[in-house]
Amino acid sequence: MRIGRLVLTWIALLVLLALTIASSFLPIGDWSQLINFVIAAAKAALILWIFMKMREETALVRLAAITSAVLLLVLGGMLAADYELRSPSPYVLTDASSVASRI
Amino acid sequence: MSRAGLHDARPEELAPLQTEAEAASYLGGDTSLRAWLTTTDHKRIGVLYLIAITCFFAIAAVAAALIRIELLTPQGDLLTAEGYNRAFTIHGIIMVWFFLIPSIPNVFGNFLIPLMIGARDLAFPRLNLASWYIFVFGGLFTLAAVIFGGVDTGWTFYTPLSSTYANGNVVLALAAVFIAGWSSILTGINFIVTIHKLRAPGMTWGRLPLFVWMHYATALILVLATPVLTVTLLLVAAERIFGLGIFNPALGGDPLLFQHLFWFYSHPAVYIMVLPAMGVVSELVPAAAHKKLFGYWFVACSGLAIALVGFLVWGHHMFVSGQSAFASTIFSFLSLIVAVPSAIKVYNWTATLYKGSIALDAPFLFAMGFIGLFVMGGLTGLMLALLAIDVHVHDTYFVVAHFHYIMVGGAVTAFLGAAHFWWPKMFGRMYNEAWGRTSAVLIFIGFNVTFFPQFLLGYMGMPRRYHVYPPEFQTLHVISTAGAGLLGLGYLLPLIYFLYSFRHGRPASANPWAATGLEWTVPSPPPEHNFEEPPVVIRAPYDYPLSHDSSLR
Amino acid sequence: MTIVRHEPFPDIARQREADRLGMAVFLASEAMLFGAVVMGLLALRSFEPASFAATSQRLNLVAGSVNTAVLLTSSLLVAIGAEARACDRQRLARWALGCAALLGLVFLAIKGSEYVQEYGEGLMPGAGPKQDFATPGARMFMDGYFVATALHALHVTIGVAMLAGCAWRLRGDDAPSTVAVENIGLYWHLVDIVWVFLFPVLYLSR
User: Fold this and answer.
1) Is the complex ipTM higher than 0.90?
2) Alpha-carbon distance B315 to B293, whole Å?
3) Probe site for chain A from B197, B264, B313, B328 (most A CB atoms < 10 A)
4) Is the pTM higher than 0.95?
């Protein structure tokens, strides 16, 4: 039984957890969000590869795992392309209200 | 003749007008209601779905009739504004989720996929039955919504109308679709696993009927897109019940977030509706021409391409909603790309027909009708993908006509083509061919008379979802309603002659169309477990012309 | 321990593969489900970043962190349990899965206590003795928080039930097969992965 590898993975996951919490306290602004996302992806990868034994699964099962990740990136990417790149409308009076300034 | 584990029916056990073939098939054996409602036989489940979706089609057709009758006159005389909104909403909700999405996959996919791949059932037969029950349960919620007075938000449930301001049974309708979504997901899982793991020896991917390829692509969309709809509708219901505010601009939310999440599912959903139809046509066209399908791998891969690229284009529903111009441009470009694989299929079907000896039986008339109408719908889709045109025709009847050409001219026509083609296999009876051809022609004509004027109406500015309109549009509306009457008659005919064929139809042979495919090697109707031993496949697909009409092993 | 061959599979190996593929495809759909939720949260964050961050800081970070560790540990136990079952060590498998289920209950308990705390502090939209939202953005953050964590908690509950059921059945002769135990494990790991993404978005957006 390969319990050793499982326990090592668990320790790595806890270390990453500590890192992600710590990094959120650093005064680095929006970069912490990116770091948190990367760390979360690393944790997910560890869980997938070791705990869920993706390394031993067929290519088909791995494809199932990858596909949803890719699709979510597409959704996220296009949402960002919309929200980040809207230009202010000349038809809306901008005032202090955050609602109007986003339309 | 297969024994398939059933005892040979003694003559006195046969129902009055049941043939021996039917008694020995999946239709015979235990015919009690309880047996039917607890079956795990994919063929019986397909029939259960057929009954359910036919009922839903009828309800939604009544709603359509109300709409078309109301639009005969420029004033709102038959329905109030609220009533009209409820009519088109229930028409859309039922047609999309309770007819179109389940129609070909859950009736013909369920029935035929195991037969086509040489399996004895789907991978998870009990899950299949559960899918049907979940579907019917969702349908009950829809009926409840109708009975309690309906919903007026449109099938698209746009916020903040649906989440904040609408009166009516929005949560009931949301629950109905939410529940039906689970049925979709389970069906998708079943198809994917079945096609991967239950193909008979020798049934390689390169020998699979394209019907199966297209259902595979459809299943991918079912599994990956539907959960997003589930979450979206949950959020709208939560907003409505708990006053969340994420879609309500007055509370700081964004209605476009709803639209993004909704269309991320709903655009691939239209490919859920169309890919199975393309699978049907890919079976009908070689059978019609008695000729090998041209470009097998092109058709197969284009189906997967449609499924993939179909996930990338949802923003073309939002060109005028306030989406960023940058995102709109990307979506427009990708929407032009997604037309390419569809066009590839049309070229391949046409090339298959070329120099074939084309039979003009009813199923093949439907298939040909599909090709023509789908091309119209597809070309107008290209027009809509162009930003400049869409700005002009968004929310007009041009869009309504476009999607009805695809959904009705395409998907429903293919459904009927499938029904005529596989009816003999499913029920062991031939329908009346003359009436079949009549209905195919009537539907084609009625459809065009109904929906072509709507392109003109839309281009001239007639908005959709309006029940009052300027008098100059009346002529075209009257023509459209007249067409709808013809179309309705065309749909009524198959109901009558199919039911008639149960008692009086000529018993069908195993392969009445001299077609290729494993389903034609088993008796009509098939025995309960399909094949006594797994067939071993050695021939290429669409191996026309056949030297004899059975035994393709 | 042999598994029973079901119709329509021609052999057990194929049936096992099909069961595994079925669970993988189902998990892909669950990933899309929660992925849509996370995308919604990220969109909310982009609407009003300042309010989002400020309200995120009002959550109980200790509870959230402990919960993350609890889930990660339960995932370890589930992985051990699946490994044990594969080696026919039913007793170890039973204990591992049972403890994992218990940790799942611990997760739910901590979550529940957070909800109670938020209720009292006026952070539960539409409920509670007061409503303490500085901006509309703060309210929307809590909306997103409750929807996301409630949906996740529902999945945790289902997972706990399946793990407990599995552990129970491992006592007797009708033990679930290795494939079944692994499949339930896969579900639990996905629930864990979802939390791994939810935690930073909700608790660490500061």
Assistant:
1) yes
2) 35
3) B264
4) no
